[in-house]
Amino acid sequence: MMITVKTFIDVPKEKAWEFWTLPEHIVKWNHPSEDWHTVAVENDLRIGGKFKYVMKTKDESQGFDFEGVYTDVKIFSLIEYKLSDNRTGSIHFNENNDSVMLIEMFEPEGAIPENIQRQWCQAVIDNFKSYVEADENN
């Protein structure tokens, strides 16, 4: 069973792709709420390339590394990955005129309720949408 979250972003898919994949942007949007942040990002976006996002609460009371390896990359359309615990996931960039439907699908982690994982991930991609669209208006 996969968890699926999605959002419609009013920017061209090339911009959505760039902001999703470049570390200097990832650290600015990759958090579900204002009490979390991503403090470091490594991202080798190619098949076999590794990624690692170091996430922490701002008070440093909690944190984890989100890391894995890319299993498929199709520029401007698809990213597939396998996490360090062997769960898999994918991000789809579906173009619609000058906008993109971002869809993320992933296998849930067994110890955390699925609704919590879905809410967390939806909050992250909603934050991504806000970040990218705010930049578009500047």
Automatic annotation (TrEMBL):
Q: Which residues form the Activator of Hsp90 ATPase homologue 1/2-like C-terminal domain?
A: 10-132
What Pfam families does the entry give? AHSA1
In terms of InterPro entries, this protein maps to:
ASHA1/2-like_C, START-like_dom_sf
| Domain of life of the native organism | Bacteria
Q: Which family does it belong to?
A: Belongs to the AHA1 family.
Q: What is this protein called?
A: SRPBCC domain-containing protein
Q: Provide the species name.
A: Flavobacterium procerum
Lineage of producing organism: Bacteria, Pseudomonadati, Bacteroidota, Flavobacteriia, Flavobacteriales
